[in-house]
Amino acid sequence: NPAYHKKRIFEAKGPFLYESFRWILDHSDFNKWRKTEKSGVFWIKGGPGKGKTMLLGGLVDDFEKSPQVDKNLAYFFCQATDSRINTTVAVIRGLIVSFIKKHHELRSYVRTEYKDDLDKLNGPDGWYILRDIFEKVTQHSALPNPVCVVDALDECGQEHGRKQLLRLIIETSCRVKWLISSRNIPEIERELQEIDSSRMLSLELKENAECVTKSVDLYIDDAVQNVMALQGDTELQTLTTSTLKSKANGTFLWVALVIGQLRHTKHRDIRDVLEQMPEGLESLYSLILNQLSKQKDKDVYQILLSIVATAERPLRLEELLTFISFQWKDYKTAYSLRDIQDLVKDCGSFLSIRDDDKSVDFIHQSVKDYMMGPAVRVIFPSGIEYQHYKMFKTSLSAMSRILKHDIYGLQDPGSDINTISPPTPDPLAPIAYCCVFWVQHLFHSCESGASRDKLFLKDGRTLHAFLKVKFLCWLESLALLRSLVPQGIDAIQKLKNLLFYKSETKKRVVAFINDAYQFFHYCRHYMSKHPLQLYHSAFAFEDRRSAIFTTVAISPKSNYVAAWDSRGDIEIWSGESGERTQIIKRSALNHEFYFSPAFSPNSELMACAQGEKGDIQIWHVETGKLLHLFKGPDAEGKLTVSHNSFSDDSGYVVAGYTTGQVKVWCVESGKCLCDFDK
């Protein structure tokens, strides 16, 4: 809902002053756009921190005072640092929501006309469906003279997505009044030149510097009154006001940052701080970063800023704790949530904590631009690609430690996602970001060609070991987080693309990804509705030679689940309590084994194929004891068990081999009863 986004953004930016934007209400070009009956585009452009968002926020408030305009008004405020509101899909969703909340007949129209498409909005066709809905809604008789306001168009998605949105603006400008803002980017200007000059107006804040400067001066006058160290000292207040006005250069953000510094400055130090403050945002950022580099916690500040800058969306405090604890473990082993909150506050000139979800974000896109540009060597001493690798490695480590079968303790495989609520505390909360975005970081860490030969991509290494042990648990977490579509689809495709070529060192991991890709696309529709069904699907429907089949076994009565852990041991979990009941150590299984598990129909025994000779181990599930070791056929070279299972009465075990041989054993006596040669 754009109304909530607007409220949150403006609360973060501080008090809104009506006087700071009212100058535009008297601007001739703006009034020409506003009062004409023709539709068209009015583009407000200016540099970072010049007050574009405050300006559009004030105009939206002014529009809402007019009932005639308000009922046909939709708006959206983009923010590049927040992946939830920085995409073209998010913009169009928000505009449509704004319209249908004010016109109930539009809601009925959309539900009726698009009832078969609404469940596809998160898929690859989402943009095209939403664009079609938007075009039809803005032509509906219930919505005469629609007005759309979009702030920070330059912060909307990647270049391709922004072009899609610009095309929509151009194509609908004959019937929709558009008010947009952005930095003065040539690409946006080129696209907008296609609009007929009679329907295209723009306002360059640089050309209206006098008006902007007056607005900034008003902002300074108000802000200085709220600095505790200045109260009661008229002379120092006057000096502060005049100094800020002389150095601000018409930049609201510069003033806000300096005022933030002054609020944490003692009265006796105010003059020194004013003298040190440089003009220009970049110079101010450099000064603040230099101040942080002189603190005793300078190293952890650098880690904190590198994590926030690399993250795909704002991290919640508990997610940030996961990353900092891992990357800082060589220096300090224990950080608390309160420690993380204090560290973020120490970096308050760069970072802010949202009140609604306790997520950490840069105060402005220009801060992130500075971190990824002029300050990149300070923030990423080993390079951005290496930071992505650390984010990937941290994510896998955290997920390996926390993820498990039925992590919410649902027990019922038929549990419907619409009835599932996270327990308190939510075990997925510290790793929610890891579950959704670890593949993105892996992909970015391999963007240079040479990186693709790194050890962590090879058979038996970091990636392969995680997938063998936790692949199904990861899919369960995505389903519970309502991120199976589209994030899960994108992640599986990225893994497939990353390992598209085979090599002798990646044969098994490539085979696993190929099986995983097929399994995911076969099962994703019902997995997204019934998360626990994926375990039964892996066991019941997958080919026994599939890599997915070998990751898990579920007993016929669903009272036990067996799976590998990261050390190569087999863990047996209770299907009822969700607790681990047994661990069968790797040393007991033999170093080289192929885990093709089979539970007996009475759920008391488990058979595992082992070793190069095709031996079969029989384990007692409840006690974890090895009951029998059935020897495979005497044959030269390596053997692989293609199939092993129990008879219906749990009294016999049969194993088939890739050589065509079949052997049958009696469980009670341990004797081989039949040995059929090909």
From TrEMBL:
<protein>
    <recommendedName>
        <fullName>Nephrocystin 3-like N-terminal domain-containing protein</fullName>
    </recommendedName>
</protein>
<dbReference type="InterPro" id="IPR056884">
    <property type="entry name" value="NPHP3-like_N"/>
</dbReference>
<dbReference type="InterPro" id="IPR011047">
    <property type="entry name" value="Quinoprotein_ADH-like_sf"/>
</dbReference>
<dbReference type="InterPro" id="IPR015943">
    <property type="entry name" value="WD40/YVTN_repeat-like_dom_sf"/>
</dbReference>
<dbReference type="Pfam" id="PF24883">
    <property type="entry name" value="NPHP3_N"/>
</dbReference>
<dbReference type="InterPro" id="IPR001680">
    <property type="entry name" value="WD40_rpt"/>
</dbReference>
<keyword id="KW-0677">Repeat</keyword>
<dbReference type="InterPro" id="IPR027417">
    <property type="entry name" value="P-loop_NTPase"/>
</dbReference>
<feature type="domain" description="Nephrocystin 3-like N-terminal">
    <location>
        <begin position="20"/>
        <end position="183"/>
    </location>
</feature>
